[in-house]
Amino acid sequence: MKSCSVTARAHTNIALVKYWGKKNQELIIPMNNSLSLTLDHFYTDTTVTFDKELEHDTFYLNNKLKDDPKIKSFMNLVRSLANIKTFATIDSVNHVPTQAGLASSASAYAALAKAASCAAGLNLNKTNLSRLARRGSGSACRSIYGGFVEWQQGTNDTDSYAVPFLENVDWDISVLAIVLNSKEKKITSRLGMQSVVASSPYYQAWVETCQQNISDLKKAILARNFDEMGRISEENAMKMHALNLSASPHFNYFEPESLIAMRLVEELRQTGISCYYTLDAGPNVKVLCLRKDVTAIKKKLSTVFSPEQLLLSSPGPGVTLI
Ligand code: 2P0
Description:
Blueprint: E1 4-17, E2 22-24, E3 29-30, E4 34-50, E5 58-61, E6 64-66, H1 69-82, E7 88-95, H2 105-119, H3 126-136, E8 148-152, E9 161-166, E10 173-178, H4 189-199, H5 203-222, H6 226-245, H7 256-270, E11 275-278, E12 285-290, H8 294-301, E13 310-313, E14 320-321
Parallel strand pairs: 5-7
Antiparallel strand pairs: 1-4, 1-14, 2-3, 4-7, 4-8, 5-6, 8-9, 10-12, 10-13, 11-12
Helix pairs in contact: 2-3, 5-6
The chain binds ligand 2P0.
Ligand 2P0 binds at residues 15, 18-20, 28, 34, 105, 137-139, 189-190, 280-281.
């Protein structure tokens, strides 16, 4: 195989019904379906160059050399699928405002799956690309598509992948991320969800109710019922964080400012503005709202947070070659 270089761009996604727990750690098969919205503002560009002269893979993140075993095992997977032995240079740049803490394994592995598979000569359809991205990081399988996307849990490597639910979002939805600094290093998603599956007495209830959340959320999206969509998303996020609080040992991702931000969103709601919050495995609060209300919401949040802490996104596209 001659030296071949491919660049792909993938965007992050925010889960409205979250993935929190695996039934297979190695293959990354989740315990429940999840449903996300791909965002336009935060993305990763990754170039993969296979080169016969190389004796190992070399990975640069934001132009800095990194030793990342997860990237190496992912590249081994791509090589085994393509039946090649050539090593590669992987050059990845996160287009996320510095210090935002929003860099995501979702955009990273979606971009890497696309760039590496194309550079290796594999011509994967989107289903197989989603399956491949999933092996890097679960949430990455959803970033193959734009708009609203469902990850169908499946039972094994072949039937666990994302499908588009509403790719071209004809709806003026915005996501306002409130960027907060975490003082301490929190538990990773991977370990956090593992601990919850093993020890939360409420885990079975999570799995059972997520299926209903997904079907109600899909109805709300199809009806363009923003309040229903927001309510389901906020409740599902709090249910995920309640699992963390109920694990043994218990943990949480909240900072004091996270609770302040949530309170401000609730106060805005009491004044008649439709807005809802969701949080992932970190302290940042993401506010789901309609574009027409962004100015009023920013005004209220600015009483506590600086303009640099408020980052606005809209629905974004799926993975592409650039
Ligand atoms: C999600 N999160 O659905 C959930 C909600 C965080 C909270 O997927 O172990 O980096 O690599 O599959 O995908 C973050 O976990 O975990 C995540 P792995 P991942 O977006």
